[in-house]
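**Archive record**
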Amino acid sequence: MSNVEDRGLAMNEITVTFGGLVALDGVSLAAAPGEIVGVIGPNGAGKTTLFNVICGFVRADSGTLTYRGKEMRRHQPHDLAKLGIARTLQGVGLWQGMTALENVMAGYHVNSKADFASAMFGLWRSSREEARIRTRALELMGELRIAQYARAYPGSLSYGIQKRASLARALIAEPTLLLLDEPASGLSSDDMDELGQLLKGLVSNMGILLVEHHMDLVMSTCDRLVVLNFGRVIATGTPAEIQENPEVTTAYLGQDVSNVSGSGT
């Protein structure tokens, strides 16, 4: 795992408890640049807690979390972008009073070179920076095939388009690790197919760690899978290996893991 620890994300024996409840029990996983790693498991398995540890919302009781060779001990959610980590939410999280373009541009604010005063008073430095960010936002929206909705407000857009705008907002920060929390929720089959192709195209520039219930997406898109059940890792491997693992089938109450879908964490 040392190569991953130097270049990507590594969790080692992470344990989290809430009172008497063990949410994560000695969880270890790794996600390196250039690969898509999926985290799956039934409701209550600990997937959201795992993401919250990475994002700094929850502190682990024990274990270590490192990113690009540096241990993350006291990081806060607002530190993620500077570390090169971006996250999308289970929903879309778009601001309803801003256009789709403005929402995407907002994702770059942590990288903006314009200081607060120039932004407030509209000085040349801020204007030039805003134009550059706007251009990049439009490029991303074009790549995601939503540029035609740049001036629209989220409330007028379909859920699938809003999801793409949310993804563009994460990508504009130019992350080296992208955390996706149920990116396929609410999407049609066609939208999920397009999402899978999109993620495969993105992974050349970053690592991707995703939590997802739609097995058709994770099985066709992920390089590796980590399966959680009651806060513990019960299996890791390629999608083909996971599909053949009897313990995983049992965790999903006997259902074929290639067809399981649902919601919740």
Observations:
- The chain has a mean pLDDT of 84.
